[in-house]
Every structure is written in C-alpha cells, then in structure tokens.
C-alpha cells in the first residue's frame, strides 16, 4: 500500500518530548516490542481505540513516531481508504496535531501494552532487566516441593464460592438473580451455617445496589423474616459510580475500607449499572471493567461477585465481550421456566460444573404502608428442581410441538391458530397425511401434547411450557 506524508506537518524528525523515550533508548528490543503491540491491535478497531493508539505513540516521542502511527493506521479499511486517501490523510494529520501533552497522563507505553493485551498480546521477555543470581530479583521460582506445601483452597461457601477471585451471577430479566444474590450476601455476612446445604464462612459483605434500589428495604425485611436472622454485618452503597474510572474505584475502596477491614466480599448489582454508557461488547470497555473488579478483589483480599444479564439469546450465556467469561473464576447461572427456577454452576475453575438446585421465591408480608395496606416482597427458598417433561414419541406430536414452539415465542395463540400451524407443519413433513385428514390429525396431536404436559391450554390459549415472560410478583 502506498504511503503518504511520512513527516508530520510542522514537526521535526528529531523532536523528543521530555519524560518520553529518548533516541538513545530506542533499542531494537523496544522497536520490536512496539511492532508486536501494533500487530496485535487491529487497525480496524473503533475510533476511540484508534485515537488512543495514535496519541500513545505520539507521547513516546520516537523519531519515527509519526511514520509508525501512520503506517499502522494505513492497514485499516475503516480509517484509511485509497479511494479517499486525501480525506484519510487529512483526518490523520488533524488527529496528530490535536495531541496535547497536558491531557495525556494515561497515554504512552503502558496504555499501548494494556490495549494490546486485550487482543492477546504478551510483553516480550527480552525487555526484562536481567538480575545476577542473588541480586535484587522480586520473582520467586517455586520447586515442586514448594507447590506441595502451598495452602489448600479456601472457601466462602464450601465447594461453591472461593474466598478470593471474581464471580458472575447471571440470568435473564425477571429470573430472580438479584433475590438470589442478596440471599448469598446475607448468608455470608451473618455467618448462617449453610446456603443450600453448602457450609458458609462468615465474612463481611459490601453490596452495591445500583439497580432496583427502591425495593432494597423490602427485600432486606423479607430475608430477615424468612431466615429469622437480623442482618448486621452487611453494608450497602446505592450511589452511582463508573468502575471504568480509576478515580471512582479509588473513592469506592476508600469508602468501603472501614466496613471490610481485613477481607470481604463485594457484590455489584448490576455490572451494567456500574459502568453507565459502557459498550459491553467492546473489548476495551469490558477490559476496564474486569481490571476494576480485580482491583477490588486485591484491595479487600476477597471475592467480587457481579450480577449480570444474559443477552437476547439466553442460550449464549453472559451478555457482552467474551473476555468476561475468560476472566472469571466461577459463574452461577439462574434460569426460569414454567416449571420453576433453578441455579446451577456455569463455571468453577478446577471443580466439576455439575451443581444445581431448585429455587422458589416465597411472597412475604413485611409491613404496612401509610394507608394501612400490606407491603410485600420475596425471599429465596430451596425447592426441588422440576424435571422437564418427557419428549413426545408420536411422529405427529413431535412435528406439532416443534411448530408450536416457533408460533408461541412472542405470546400464546388461540386453539384455532394452533390447529392451522400444526396442519401446515404436518402437510410439509416427509410423510404428510391426506389433505382432508390433516386437520383431524392436527387436533389429535394437540390433544396429546396437552395431555402429556408439553403445552398448556388456558382460557382457549395454547402455549408451550419452556419459556416464561410474566414478571415477578414483587
């Protein structure tokens, strides 16, 4: 690809800002490392990342900085096009000229490394200073014996939640995930003997209730009534923050430190509300959120538990960039069907992912309002997991159920509509019935599905039994 304007306008090739990399420091290893980072960062990244890379290169003050940034940018079909190269060149030069050193504290080599790491880059060991044996080397190499002597894993909830790391509790809207998160939090903070049969260890808890704050008081009262225990060792924060901002994380650590003096568990409900306006599908935004959670985990020598949503396609799991699932130590998935609710382990490093329990939200009266009307909320209670009904075995019923699952995705349909959908599906099958008998076969198939519990018939409306859309009672 052709290159243009290799020297930036009004810029000397030998200029080198103070506190940047001097020409003498531009070794082959530094150049190679920079090339490695730029190879990792796709030039077709979004504009925010593109600007960050260009200005970070500029902050380094390299003699060839302009040329390096331009050549990297020219790899992109998004920020550089040969068909409109004059415009692309002008845009690049304008961006280069808009760089201001006084606002570039977070730019430079470290920012390039952090950005490249989000795309899989790992710094080269050739840049590491060699230390003579017995010198001031902070790295400790373990022998096999040292590994054997390492302490065993400790648990907040045994065989379920480790005492340090990062967890996600996730599920679709109205699945009851916030009720379950509060239930876990209060069992831990109050040292209740066990949670769903798993032994608990008392640990102070900080709960960031960033969503549904209005119902927090009722939910606290409902849990206390259901468990006959007064919550005393949990702290709450309802102020809005943005965990992508280092200043907000510093302020959060300062605010929570008196309440989590030795170690603690931090709940963030929800991740979306903790980073308002963030693009969860962006590797950069998600990387900043992950970094913030790890800072909190390190600061309180404990575990951070995120409450998060699934995407529109629930089967794909966690919403957002795939780096989140890679970064967490364990995950709890909350599901809701017409048979009931359940939670299960979605990811637990070095352990079997086969734990699941049934969940029921029981409605409790927790007081009276100013008009004397009852105030109600829900609390978690363990129940048996409802098994899925057996699959139909009849050929026509199998075809009919598949057709009805598609037809009832948005809402239930009338029996007449159901007959028509099944009739069409049967006639389109490999062994269709005679046309004048298709409606009768459709009625027989629907009756069999209702009797077998595969579909429901309520006031003449037909629905399948696998999805649920109605809201929680409270």
Kindly describe this structure.
- It is a single chain.
- The protein has 474 residues and is an alpha/beta fold.
- The chain folds into 3 domains: 23-127, no CATH class; 155-383, Rossmann fold, CATH 3.40.50; 395-464, Arc Repressor Mutant, subunit A (Orthogonal Bundle), CATH 1.10.10.
- Helix content is 36%, strand content 18%.
- The chain is built from 15 helices and 16 strands.
- The chain has helices at 28-40, 47-60, 65-73, 85-97, 109-117, 144-148, 177-189, 216-227, 246-256, 271-274, 283-299, 323-327, 395-407, 415-427, 435-452, and strands at 155-157, 161-162, 165-171, 194-195, 198-199, 205-209, 234-237, 265-269, 303-309, 330-337, 340-348, 356-368, 374-383, 413-414, 455-458, 461-464.
- The strands form 4 sheets. It has a 9-stranded mixed sheet with strand order 7-6-8-9-3-10-11-12-13, with helices on both faces. Strands 14-16-15 form a 3-stranded antiparallel sheet. Strands 1-2 form a two-stranded antiparallel sheet.
- The longest helix has 18 residues, at 435-452.
